[in-house]
Amino acid sequence: MAYSILSCTSLPATSYEQSPQQVDGKFRNAAPRQAPGFAKTMGIMWRFMTDKPADAVPAKPPQVLPLTQTDLLAAPDLSLWRLGHSTMLLKLQGQFWLTDPVFSERASPFSFMGPKRFHAPPIAIDELPPITGVVLSHDHYDHLDHAAILQLAPKVAHFVTPLGVGDRLIAWGVPAAKVQQFDWWQGTTIAGVKLVATPAQHFSGRTLSDGNRTLWASWVMEAGEGTGATRLFFSGDTGYFDGFKAIGERFGPFDLTMIETGAYDAQWPDVHMQPEESLQAHLDVKGHHLMPIHNGTFDLAMHVWTDPFDRITALADKAGVPLVAPVMGERLDIRQPALSKQWWRGAAADAGAGTAAR
């Protein structure tokens, strides 16, 4: 579960009173979220410390296919690489885009504690080609990586964010001219790619005192025009809600959906989806191929690390939904992606065999 701790950088006091999502200086969901409260939060933290399953973290790093800038430049248009968690690198209209780029070792304000990566990124930031745009869903540490943003800034032309998240980037030193911020149902077109911020059901904040001062969003991405356009849906972090149907009605169908499937638990049902809900969200937005994301990189909940993959695979098989679950760093053709090879089962079996041998 993504949650706020501390940060050394404060958020500017920016008002977005014109936003229907903001009330009394705080953003809110369309349906009120059940805040856990102090006692429940302490109970959750106690479970994290004392009741973790043995396989919440893989015994050895999962497979990663290393990438080079040469690989990326030579790849055809409409390619996608999953770099980890919710970080996708896309080649659209001949330009490169990143979603929620997290490259740091930990999804945490601290270098010495907090959720640690299971695997290294397939490519280092220095090796990336120029990036036309970075699309951010919200400001939690496993989606907004301060060090990565600062390192990326010189090679990124545009940062596209929900309201308030761009203020954080500007406060960190990203030139304001590179930053565009949007409310739900607002968007822009950059280099032939249409971007629309769409609703999500979540929360925000990076400190103990700035909760919900920034907005959270899912994103519609459309490359090309007319009947030949390629449509993608990126869920960001979200609980299940009826907004998915509205998104599908306004922007579907989608060639590929990148849907949150991980870090779920019965104790926080309205901010992260169970796999059954992830599948329903995919169907609601009228998706074709489903890519489960928000898994395979960080330990953020109480489930075994392979559980999101196994559960969504069984559900998609039963529903006849084509599932795409690439190895980190593997190139996908967005229009005709290779279906899941269930690589995580081999990783889990190898780890189990190694443990038995010891």
SSE layout:
Elements: E1 22-23, E2 26-27, H1 37-50, H2 69-74, E3 79-84, E4 87-92, E5 95-99, E6 131-135, H3 146-152, E7 156-162, H4 165-171, E8 179-182, E9 187-190, E10 193-198, E11 218-223, E12 230-234, H5 243-251, E13 254-260, H6 275-284, E14 287-293, H7 307-319, E15 331-333, H8 343-357
Parallel strand pairs: 5-6, 6-7, 7-8, 12-13, 13-14
Antiparallel strand pairs: 1-2, 3-4, 3-15, 4-5, 9-10, 10-11, 11-12
Primary descriptors:
single chain; 358 residues; alpha/beta; seven-stranded mixed sheet; disordered N terminus; disordered C terminus
In short:
This protein has 358 residues and is of the alpha/beta class.
Q: What would you note in describing this structure?
A:
The structure is a single chain. The chain is of the alpha/beta class and 358 residues long. 23% of the residues lie in helices and 21% in strands. 45% of the residues are buried. Helix 6 packs across helix 7. The longest helix is centred in the C-terminal third of the chain and has 15 residues.
